Amino acid sequence: MMNKRTKLQSFMLYALVIALVVFCIFPFLQILSTSLKHPIDWGNPSLIPKILHLDAYKELLGLMPPKDVDIPASIQRLLDNPALSEAKKQALITKFTSGGDVFSFGRYMLNTFVISLVTGVCATFLASLAAYAIARLRFPGQSVMANGVLFVYMVGGVLLMVPLYQMSVSVGLASSVAGTLFSLFLIYLIQTLPVAMYMLGNYFRTIPFSLEEAAMMDGCSRVEAFWRIIMPLSKPMLFTVFIYCFVIAWNEYLFASVFLKQYQDFHTLPLALQTLFTSKNAIWDRIMAASMLTLLPVIICFMLANRHLSGGLTEGGVKG
Amino acid sequence: MSSVIIRNVNKSYGTLPIVKNLNLEVQDGEFVVLVGPSGCGKSTTLRMVAGLEDITQGDIDVGGRTVNDLPPHKRNIAMVFQNYALYPHMSVKENIVFGLKKSGADAQTIQNKLADVSEMLKLEPYLDRKPADLSGGQRQRVAMGRALARDADVYLFDEPLSNLDAKLRHHMRTEIARIQHQYNMTAIYVTHDQIEAMTLGDRVVVMRDGIVEQVGSPMEIYLQPTNTFVATFIGSPAMNLIEATVNENVLVIDDYHIPAADIANVDLTELNKHHSVLVGIRPDFFEDSSLNSPSDNVFEFNDIQVDLVENLGFDKEVLFKLGGEDSKARLDLRSHVQRKEHISLTVDLNRVLIFDTSTEGVLLNPGALINPTDLSDPNG
Ligand SMILES: Nc1ncnc2c1ncn2[C@@H]1O[C@H](COP(=O)(O)OP(=O)(O)O)[C@@H](O)[C@H]1O
Ligand SMILES: [Mg+2]
């Protein structure tokens, strides 16, 4: 314990830590701030909005009565221009109040949630079986397999994108929505499994083998020992791995953009956000509110994972 | 309950032999203790019986069936691990009944067993705690309870007390002895502690380097060790081994001439074939000459210079040189010997053993086997 730290040292340490934290969370604060600002406030560099303006959120979450779809201020200014002909003004107004092109945030969120959940559950399940085999069993080719899976990480996604899409076209998966989603799911699995296996494998190795031996003496087969001892003991790590896989799938843009391009209804949030940026709905508060809502589950996940990780479950089982 | 037969069992890791041609029969209801220094293959032997290690060669029968190829969970054997190996995510109660539940016992049986075991091991106050919230001694008792709650054919113990402090170890040793008599279980108990071996075993198996050196009752092992290894490993302080030259029926140590004919354990003709031998005298078999009425078959070392006296309360350990060796005698509190004093020590020649210097085997007179009925009284 360094309890002999001087005041100056403490001060420097805290200053550094705070600087680092601010640096990390500043973008998030910026997003949050902009999403809450009223259009009149956008030019203001202050992080604190003059008026709290929740319309962007309401709109994204479908809480606004459809009538209230506003003409954005920029357009309004345009409309106020006396040089513009009445017909053009009408066209602009209908275009912006039609609501037919409203960004269906809920739908995208559901898409993303479903594919992330399925990926998270399946990857965690498969990774735990694989990690157990690699951590505990002895079989030919074990180390090749253990290290081979990490190879996926040496090849960038951009390189694999086209070949993978071609493959899914060749086997006929890309021709249907279900097939496309399935290929995407497979890709996410492959992308998340190596790290998931690595995390779980290392965790399994910290569980004393004698616990399994004890279970076997108590009448469990090896498989039962895995389910009744190893899995319950690994809950914190399983949860963390699940969160990791979930978040990877939640944020994934590259493959989704290639595979789902033609299926607008099945777009995931990162893809939809990209579309939003370039659409006529590209309005700062709305973009930032959508970004914020996309971030939110990730932040919640990490807070949960953090809390879960602090308690060591395997403590107390064996002596020394 | 059932017997265990280990027949010509070998175990190697790679080419390194660990257990060499082991033979052992454990009777139904017998408590056998495997004892030996660390690394001699005791745990390996136990784990082969449990099914946690493969047998390189040989057979193991449990309850009349050969179990070589049965996985551990089909052998119906309970085991207490050296590191306890409690399930950390389960409460004490769940730990104890885990195996019982697994075997399909009905709720009533489980309840009764749990009550039995937790009462016997005084675990009632802790049943709902997790292992992490228990002290070392309590964890050890839970590990014990988990095995005892099972209705197993054989119970295996792998140094269950080695992680406890001395006082607790003594207490638990007594508890185990009590439980063993109450349950009359077939058990193999592994320890490196010769006191545990002596106090717990119906029979003691002394192992060294994967080989069984001697099998016998604790008193047989104590009084009639077959070689110097067993002689010095069992008993504390260790047996004194003093080199003596053989001179026509007389053993010469320093200036002492011990008439070999009076040493009941040794065969004279055999002894006379040797030039020098090791004379084994347990520290306990020395007595302060001034305190004892002379009996018929004793030898008196009448000029012993005391190098050191260690007072242990009732006992005192006296260090001196005999035949150039550091030797020990354990005298009781009646003796008032002091450091640097010259004293006289008597030894009962009936208890003296003679070992071959080169083979380290005992030179035993087959006619002089100690009558088991007076095994309990070392002065008898
Ligand atoms: N998995 C293993 N691989 C190689 N050698 C081993 C293995 N397990 C034990 N040994 C060796 O076998 C010997 C006996 O071990 P063990 O049976 O645990 O001894 P102990 O009598 O102390 O219980 C030791 O020398 C140990 O190093
Ligand atoms: Mg051992």
TrEMBL record, chain A:
Pfam families the record matches: BPD_transp_1
Annotated transmembrane regions: 12-32, 108-132, 144-165, 171-190, 237-260, 287-305
Record's GO cellular component terms: plasma membrane
InterPro entries associated with the record: BP-dep_ABC_trans_perm (IPR050901), MetI-like (IPR000515), MetI-like_sf (IPR035906)
Superkingdom of origin: Bacteria
UniProt keywords, alphabetically: Cell membrane, Membrane, Transmembrane, Transmembrane helix, Transport
Membrane topology qualifier: Multi-pass membrane protein
CDD domains: TM_PBP2
ABC transmembrane type-1 domain boundaries: 109-305
Gene Ontology biological process terms from the UniProt entry: transmembrane transport
Subcellular compartments: Cell membrane
Entry similarity comment: Belongs to the binding-protein-dependent transport system permease family. MalFG subfamily.
PANTHER family to which the protein is assigned, alphabetical: INNER MEMBRANE ABC TRANSPORTER PERMEASE PROTEIN YCJP, MALTOSE TRANSPORT SYSTEM PERMEASE-RELATED
Name of the molecule in the record: Carbohydrate ABC transporter membrane protein 2 (CUT1 family)
UniProtKB/TrEMBL annotation, chain B:
GO MF entries: ABC-type transporter activity; ATP binding; ATP hydrolysis activity
UniProt keyword annotation of Nucleotide-binding present: yes
One cellular component (GO) term of this entry: ATP-binding cassette (ABC) transporter complex, substrate-binding subunit-containing
Keywords recorded for this protein, A-Z: ATP-binding, Nucleotide-binding, Transport
UniProt protein name: Carbohydrate ABC transporter ATP-binding protein (CUT1 family)
SMART domains (alphabetical): AAA (SM00382)
Ranges for domain ABC transporter: 4-234
Pfam families tied to this protein: ABC_tran, OB_MalK
Keyword Transport included in the entry's annotation: yes
Gene Ontology biological process terms in this record: carbohydrate transport
